[in-house]
What does this fold into?
Amino acid sequence: FTVASLVESHAPLFCYIGPMPTPAATRTAPMESAPSDLAWRVFGLVNIYRLLVAGGLFTASRFTVGRETISIDRPVEMAVICALYFLAGIGLIALRRVPFGGLRALTLTHSVVDSAAMGFVLWAAGGVASGLGILLLLPVAAMALLAYHRDAFFTAALASCAVLLQQLLVNLDADGNGGGYIAAGVLGAVIFIAAMLVRPLANRLIASEALVRRQEVDLANMAQLSQYIVQHLRESIIVVDAQDRIRLINQSAAEILGNTNAWPDALLGECSPRLLFLLSGWRQHRNAQEIGTFAALDGSRLIQPHFAQLGNMQPAPVLIFLEDTSLLAEKVQQSKLAALGRLSASIAHEIRTPVGAMSHAGQLLAENGSTSPEDRRLTQIIRDNAERVSRII
It folds into this structure.
């Protein structure tokens, strides 16, 4: 067993007896639960991507080389939009510290921020022709990976609408040439295709996450069950690490060493110097049959420790069984009394049989008509004493 999982203090026995969720049930249920660790990791990667994009575009808009490379038509507006996008990314990172409405609300919030920000970025860059629309694919795919399947298409629709609206604003400008709608439509189609392609992977992740949660429940139940069993064992058990520090101790062992001193993470020498001395002697002489005994805290019992190594490390943790020699002596005495009782019953049976035969023979002699009064008196003596022996038996 894993010692670290049993070091905690007493805990009530807990078992999950409700129906376990299946992957299919998980896919059909609304995703209103709190984000899992996997979801937070995806959000974290998207946040890093968002900050890098916003920072890079802001830097490019401030320099002539960057403006010419990306073909930014409105550098001032681009700088403002990227700065706001960067601040929005920081705000989304801070949402992890704030109680939120669940995974679905977080996914939709990220989608709205990315779609709006990238729509304005494309507008400041002069439309879809700038090629910056490709930056929308990763946020949309990531949110589609986490979203419920209808929300995944809603996320793609938001991004596509943002692309089309910015292209409309670009064409309404006096400098617009009135084109670009075909490229915007193609980009929107690519966004939808990306959202559709990640759905099988999302279903597999949902199924894997459901399996992990079931395994976590099983492991938690097994840990608590193991702890309950160890704490309520009649045998006294102590687990000591290589540094002679107590890692596990059950209630009966704590009563032997003293409840005020014996607790997990305490040094064994502080609880029982004699036991530490016996442990050191056992480590030096592994094949020794008799290591020695020590007195319990109350002084009324002699305790015989038995040691067992855990693992192959050197030095290794040690499992210590504490055996009360007074209980052992009592068990030996009970065994002796039980054996004596069986012996007595056997002897009684063997004696009762000849005594009964003698009593019966005396009775037959007394009933014989040729027996003299003196002989009948003697046979009566035989019968009386036979009955007396039977009563004794």
